[in-house]
Amino acid sequence: MNSSKKYGFNPDYAVPPGASLQETMEALDMTQKELALRTGLTVQTLNRIFKGEQPISYETANRLELVTGTPANFWNKLEAQYQEQLAKVQERKRLESDLKWLKTIPTKELTEREFLRQSTNKVELLRETLAFYGVSSVKSWRDIWEEPAVAARRSHCFESQPGPASAWIRQGEIQAHAINCQPYDKKRFEESLETIRGLTRTAPETFQHEMRSLCAEAGVAVTFVKEIKKVPWWGATRWMSPRKAMILLNLRGKGSDMFWFSFFHEAGHVLYDGKKDLLINDDNKDDPREVRADRFAAEFLIPSRYDALISSFLSKKEVVNLAKELGISPAIVAGRYQHLTKKWHFFKELITPLKWKE
What we know:
single chain, mainly alpha, 19 helices, elongated
């Protein structure tokens, strides 16, 4: 996060080192022609240095030290500072032409979450936003987030709202980069999922840390990012590298049954889908990968052979007893019942709401 950054004076102009050279020349009561003769430079070269059109080279700095008595490193530092500031001025002009793009990014929410520093200067805000994405320009952002071949494999929401969508995923990426993972091991991940299945019976303050640790040991970084406006997704999966996968989850809906279903849905993507695509859980039934991930999550949590039994339940006790038998949270059995019967108000007291923990 960038909230601790300190910003000093940042002028929108650059003063060439030639201005200091002119002052030194005048202080020595030396004409430009005399300075040219003493340094072995032409008058035209000095003119270009005065205007900032030609840099002071290391060789020229050494000559100026002999002629003016001012150390060569003084001139070298002045030149380096000038070039750095000149680049910033040019960057500022370039960024000013991209301010329209900034309106498509949820900067207010990112600022509230302390990923961006609050600023009234739009150019500075744009620069921070690019840094948040890890890109140097809006063109680079578009190449990464709006590249047609990639966008075609995303949800309709991503294509219509790439700004908020990319902001949500990028928050997950930043978290994932900070999680130290072992190289991906499919067998170990499958074993971890068995353990995590049992964690569905525990509270968030218990399972959040434990599931992250188990997955990290298998090469999967589990990240939690609160829902962002205009991004109605349950989760997403992306491979950060061939050795590290990211599962990104939010608490949309806040029901524990849907949270766990979403996690195991994303786990299905990690286990059985390719490593090149960004896979988004937006309930898209047209994508066979999403359908397969749904099937994996459902079968892993509660085998389909129990569906008929669950549909016939009449009491909360039956739900609780089956959950105990299966070693999972009663909320998951209650959620399966609601899904099968479409009776959304039945057993809803068993589906515990999840409170977000920062």
